[in-house]
């Protein structure tokens, strides 16, 4: 098979690498950044980790601080207005997946407008490809999960329709990423757990995806091993640098893996739950991961068995059937330890959930992600899976 691998030009990994931000800008030949972040981060001492090195290098600091969880088209357009009103030559996406995805979407819409193309986000959702020339984006994650700092995707909710749109293309690939695990200390249990399961889902889905390659397999396997070794540690010992570093690296490797091999059915079904019920992305993945793995298992048993081996919950002596069963047990046990609720226990009302299931199934299929799954479901099978996980 032939593959195309996309990733950032510069990838800085390790403690205190955020202090090298001015050097990253210098190498890109840019000096007028707009920092894109959320209101919480804008008042957090963490912001100083980004602004202080810039100020020390005599670089002016401007901030767009209005990003929201599950970023919306309204927020993206407001950010683009600020870009157009000022004199900026790059964006710095700082925070969790939402600020990074917002920055990526902003550069896409800004680039499209500058090139005389559509400035409407909906016009760039898959299967269209956002490949326009665009201002550089430097991503600096403060959570270990989405891997958005290296991916060619951004997920934006259409304010008019509530649809979580998948946008993909070269303009969504950050030009540079700074992966500094010291930015993740103090993050609360729930956030650490949810973003960590998002990472695990990226790695497993990239590994079983129909678009997997030797390159992405290597990244996905290492990410799975790191999650298995470090996720509980990061959750239960939040200040332990070993767990935080392991999860930050896992998120990054898994991001490179799924960006180049795609995600599959879990993500396809997870996005509509997030859009309609505002469940955090990693948590809706976690609600679905064991059931969808079970649904898909026999369609790619050797691959799923490898996942269990990579995670150290099965050995090379275990037959694929045994290793596959251990994977299912391991995913259930992880959800239990991380206190993952069912949609019902989370408080999602049964009537509304039931009535939206056909719409969610349609939206899951429309995203294209289920086509990468080892077992490609029908709309009815997706509805049955939504029903099964409800609780
Ligand atoms: Fe994800």
Question: What's this, in brief?
Answer:
The protein is an alpha/beta fold and 391 residues long.
Could you describe the 3D structure shown?
With 391 residues, the chain is of the alpha/beta class. Helix content is 53%, strand content 9%. It is built from 15 helices and 8 strands. The strands form 2 sheets. It has a 6-stranded parallel β-sheet with strand order 1-8-5-4-2-3, with helices on both faces. It has a two-stranded antiparallel ribbon with strand order 6-7. β4, α5 and β5 form a beta-alpha-beta unit. α4 crosses α5, α11 packs across α12 and α14 packs antiparallel against α15. Fe (ii) ion (FE2) binds next to α6.
Strand content: 5-15%
Q: What is the overall pLDDT average?
A: 97
Class inferred from helices and paired strands: alpha/beta
Which bin fits the share of residues in helices? 40-55%
Distance between the termini: 41 Å
Largest sheet: spatial strand order: 1-8-5-4-2-3
Bound molecules: fe (ii) ion
Question: How can the largest sheet be summarized?
Answer: 6 strands, parallel
Please tally the helical runs, counting DSSP H or I stretches of 4 or more residues. 15
The secondary-structure element order is EHEHHEHEHEEEEHHHHHHHHHH
- What is the total tally of β strands? 8
The rough form would be described as globular
The radius of gyration computed from the alpha-carbon positions, rounded to a whole number of angstroms, is 20 Å
Spans where pLDDT lies below 50 across 5 or more residues: none
């Amino acid at each position: 098979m032939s593959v195309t691998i996309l990733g950032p030009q510069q990838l800085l990994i390790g403690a205190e690498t955020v202090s090298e931000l001015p050097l990253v800008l210098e190498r890109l030949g840019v000096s007028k950044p707009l920092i894109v972040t959320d209101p919480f981060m804008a008042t957090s001492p963490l912001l100083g980790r980004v602004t202080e090195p810039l100020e020390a290098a005599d670089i002016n600091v401007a901030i767009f601080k209005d990003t929201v969880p599950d970023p919306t088209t309204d927020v993206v357009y407001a950010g683009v207005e600020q870009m157009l009103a000022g004199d900026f030559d790059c964006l710095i996406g700082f925070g969790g997946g939402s600020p990074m995805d917002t920055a990526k979407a902003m550069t896409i819409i800004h680039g499209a407008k500058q090139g005389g193309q559509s400035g409407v986000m909906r016009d760039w959702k898959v299967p269209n490809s956002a490949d326009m020339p665009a201002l550089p984006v430097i991503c600096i994650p403060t959570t270990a999960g989405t891997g958005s700092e290296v991916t060619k995707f951004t997920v934006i909710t259409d304010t008019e329709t509530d649809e979580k749109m998948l946008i993909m293309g070269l303009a969504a690939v950050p030009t540079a990423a700074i992966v500094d695990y010291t930015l993740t200390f103090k993050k609360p249990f729930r956030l650490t757990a949810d973003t960590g399961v998002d990472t695990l889902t990226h790695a497993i889905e990239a590994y079983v995806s129909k678009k997997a390659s030797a390159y992405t397999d290597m990244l996905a396997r290492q990410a799975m091993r790191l999650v298995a070794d470090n996720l509980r540690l990061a959750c239960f010992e939040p200040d332990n640098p070993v767990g935080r570093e392991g999860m930050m690296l896992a998120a990054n490797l898994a991001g490179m893996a799924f960006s180049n091999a795609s995600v599959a059915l879990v993500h396809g079904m997870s996005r509509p739950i997030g859009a309609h019920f505002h469940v955090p992305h990693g948590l809706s993945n976690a609600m679905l991961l064991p059931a969808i793995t079970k649904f898909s298992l026999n369609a790619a048993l050797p691959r799923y068995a490898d996942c269990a081996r990579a995670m150290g919950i099965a050995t090379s002596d275990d037959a694929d059937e045994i290793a596959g069963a251990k994977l299912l047990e391991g995913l259930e046990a992880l959800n239990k330890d991380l206190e993952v609720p069912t949609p019902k226990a989370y408080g999602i009302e049964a009537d509304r959930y039931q009535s939206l299931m056909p719409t969610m199934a349609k939206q899951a299929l429309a995203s294209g992600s289920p086509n990468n799954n080892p077992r490609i479901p029908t709309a009815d099978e997706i509805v049955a899976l939504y029903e099964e996980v409800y609780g």
